[in-house]
Structures are given as C-alpha cells and as structure tokens.
Design brief:
Number of strands: 5
Radius of gyration: 27 Å
Order of helices and strands: HHHEEEEE
Strand order of the largest sheet: 1-4-5-3-2
Strand content: 15-25%
Shape: rod-shaped
Helix content: 40-55%
Length: about 140
C-alpha cells in the first residue's frame, strides 16, 4: 500500500518539476491503486485500479480540452516573430505583385496579402513566410 502512495508522491514531485498533466494523471492512478491496496484487494485489482483511473482521467482531460495541443502559427504571431506589426515603405511594385524593400539594414522581398492592391506607400508586416515579408496596407 505504501509503495503505491510513495510512487504517487514521486509522480506529483515530477509533475511540479515538469508542469505536464500526464504525471498528475499517473499520480492519481497510483493513489487509486494505493486505496485499492488499503482495501486489501489483490495486486491484479490494484493494477486495474491504476490503469482505469489513469485512462479515465486522460479521457476526461482530452474531452475538456485541457490537454489539447496549442499550436502557434509563428508566421503570423507577433509574440513569436517580432517583425510582425512593423512598418515598411514600398516605393514601387513589380508586375508579379512583389517588391523589394530595405528593412533592418537588408533588402527583403515582399508580397501583399490577398485582398490588397499594389500601390506605393507604407505597409505593415502581417506575416513572415520564409525569407519573404507579407504586407498589408496601413490603415489610417
């Protein structure tokens, strides 16, 4: 019985260090196995209690969206890419809808978002796609 509870405490410590919910689920499952041992169940039922509680917790957390993977689109996220939201000035556009601008001391190829018409002026960086800046017209 104490072995199960000791392993549960170790899993909780690991959870505090790593910050994942998976070790928390394992710790709850280990505690359920400890309770099963405290009720004098055979080892097989202790293992079943561990597995059932752990898997049930995983299903509940998946259904509620707690364990949902949060993907970040680095091309459009200003928290990931500090160029997004910065201004550039386009002097002239080429016939294919691209241009070249100087930004941060280097020449960059730029293109417009789909809804924009190419006109000279000041634009805002909406995304970075590879080595090309995607621009949107500055409003206001």
């Amino acid at each position: 019985m104490w072995t199960w509870f000791g392993l549960a405490v170790l899993a909780l410590i690991g959870e505090l260090v790593t910050g994942t919910f998976y070790l928390l689920l394992i710790a709850v499952g280990l505690a359920a196995a400890g309770v099963s041992a405290w009720l004098a169940s055979p080892v097989e039922w202790q293992l079943v209690a561990f597995g059932v509680v752990t898997l049930a917790g995983l299903v509940v957390l998946r259904k509620t969206g707690v364990l949902k993977k949060r993907e970040v689109d680095a091309q459009r996220n200003a928290d990931v890419n500090l160029d997004i939201g910065q201004q550039v000035e386009v002097a002239a556009w080429k016939a294919d809808g691209t241009a070249q601008v100087m930004y941060r001391g280097a020449a960059w190829q730029v293109e417009l978002t789909q809804d924009e018409t190419p006109q000279p002026g000041i634009y805002i960086i909406a995304a970075v796609r590879g080595s090309r800046l995607v621009l949107t017209r500055r409003r206001g």
